Amino acid sequence: MTTENDKYNTFINDFYNLKTKDITDTHRDLLWNSEFSQTIRFEYLYKLIEHELDTIEVLDVGCGLSHFRGFINKKKKHNIRYTGLDINKNFIEISRQKYPDSQFINKPLNELNNKNYDYIIASGIFNIGDPTLNMNNYLKYSIEKMFKLSKKGIAFNFLTKKNQNIFEGGSIIYFDPLFVLETSFSLTNKIKFYHSYSNDDCTILMYK
Description:
The chain is α/β, with parallel strands linked by helices. It has six helices and seven strands, in the order ααβαβαββαβαββ. The chain has helices spanning 4-19, 35-46, 67-74, 89-98, 135-149, 177-185; strands at 56-61, 80-85, 103-105, 117-122, 150-159, 191-194, 201-207. Strands 3-2-1-4-5-7-6 form a seven-stranded mixed sheet, sandwiched between helices. It is globular.
């Protein structure tokens, strides 16, 4: 039986296969407007783990070309055991070549069940979606799944409907931040919410 998760996984894999026939290993492959727009998101996700001094395991959901791994290197954060998770085989193969000392898993989030990580981050995984599916359900499921798999906490970003210049239609998906916060607070009251660093993006950190 095909579930909504299966339909979404097929959609997103096909979407990026079509968009990334010629991979440049830049922000363009992941459809960010600029390197700055990608990096500023990383800065806010990084707040989840920047205080950690002990060795920690971090799972990057929808890792793409593992640019967050490169971001960590620039921060000289050497206490992180990084694992990248992505449904796209091409992205995973390139990531393995770039960072042979890290672990990579080629499967969707809903098929990950056998391991827990200290922290889980996800950048941009909710930005593109199938407009025929209920993306609120997908976002809610993903937050719950990531929080369940984490030992200490998660961080993720999404496009906000509070943006005054929403481009309606197509595959770009915006969410009501109140709905996302309600979903997050149903799991924990230890939350940090950032909504001012971008016109259209916001980040939530959730701790156990």
